[in-house]
Amino acid sequence: MPILDEHSLDFVSHSPDQTRRLGVRLGELLKPGDLVFLAGDLGAGKTTFAQGIARGWGSLDPVTSPTFVLVNEYRRADEAHLYHFDAFRLDKPAEAVALGLTEILEEGGPLLVEWPERVQPVLPENGLWVRLRWVDDSRRALQLDAHGSRSEALLRQFRKAAFGG
Questions:
Q1: Is residue 58 a contact partner of residue 74, using CB atoms and an 8 Å limit?
Q2: Domain boundaries 8-163, corresponding CATH code
Q3: Which residue has better confidence, 164 or 142?
Q4: What are phi and psi of 62, to 5 degrees?
Q5: E-strand spans in 87-139?
Q6: Where are the domains of the chain?
Q7: Minimal CA–CA distance to 37: which of 153, 136, 150, 147?
Q8: What residues does 9 pair with on adjacent strands?
Q9: CA 66 – CA 133 distance, rounded (Å)
Q10: pLDDT digits (tens, 9 = 90+) for 133-153
Q11: If you ran DSSP here, which 8-state letter would residue 63 be given?
């Protein structure tokens, strides 16, 4: 687990189950207002990681890729909401605003954004970027980069929860 600096973490997941478990560790730490940006090519493991995040957060709903509906909303027993936004099918950032991204950000539930680079001009600068990369059929490289004090705290907590360090 190479630590690039206190703002970054780089590691390899050796299976989809491990990717999901790492997502669970992150999801357990999410608070209202947290932003997690999931970047990577098709098949890189973004939805698998998001499934773990939602499970760790306590979602009562099954997690699927929101590619066709663009926004999924997951509920928890305490009525909290986790939003999962997929920008893959969007051509320009203004489309994300038209789909309610601004309102989702204002509501303040944790938000996961897949394909954030497609709508980056309308996203806040602060957030935890998770870049996933296909290594082989079972392994994925993950690089986490924290921007802003809350995301830096989230990354420190995740590093400790996932790797004990």
A1: no
A2: 3.40.50.300
A3: 142
A4: -70, 145
A5: 111-114, 127-134
A6: 8-163
A7: 147
A8: 144
A9: 20
A10: 999 999 999 999 999 999 999
A11: P
